[in-house]
Amino acid sequence: MTPLLGLVKGAILSLVDRKSKFTILAKLKSKHAEGVAQTTITSFKRLPRKVIHTLTFDNGKEFSRQYPVIQVSAVTLQRPTTLGSVA
User: Fold this and answer.
1) pLDDT per residue over 23-63, tens digit each?
2) In what order do the strands lie in the sheet containing 11-16?
3) Which of 18, 51, 55, 59 is the most buried (most CB within 10 A)?
């Protein structure tokens, strides 16, 4: 997962499947950890549970609230690599 910050106020959360490159973009209401976690949970609820297996976050502080995301979506957390993505 990666937040995309623009020149204007606001940010977009990107959820990218590593294999298929299927991408979900979601507008963030807040760039803080709580807002990113809530947007991630909302985005995951729109997907079938069987398509989400593992989750890798960027190292940014906006991903410090990972536990609620993991708990709600029942995914396995992977250690960060270079960029965050959903596998």
Assistant:
1) 889 988 888 888 888 888 888 888 887 777 777 777 778 77
2) 2-5, 11-16, 23-28
3) 55
Q: Answer for the pair 54, 63: CB distance below 8 angstroms, yes or no.
A: no
Number of domains present in the structure of the chain: 1
Domain with residue 40: its CATH number is 3.30.420.10
**What pTM was estimated for this model as a whole?**
0.69
User: β-strands 76-78, 54-56: how paired?
Assistant: parallel
Give the tokens for residue 57: 């976050």
Give all strands of the β-sheet with 76-78 in edge-to-edge order.
Answer: 76-78, 54-56, 85-86
Helix/strand/coil (H, E, C) string of the chain?
A: CEEEECCCCCEEEEEEECCCCCEEEEEECCCCHHHHHHHHHHHHHCCCHHHCCEEECCCCHHHCCHHHHHHHHCCEEECCCCCCEEC
pLDDT tops 70 at residue 83: no
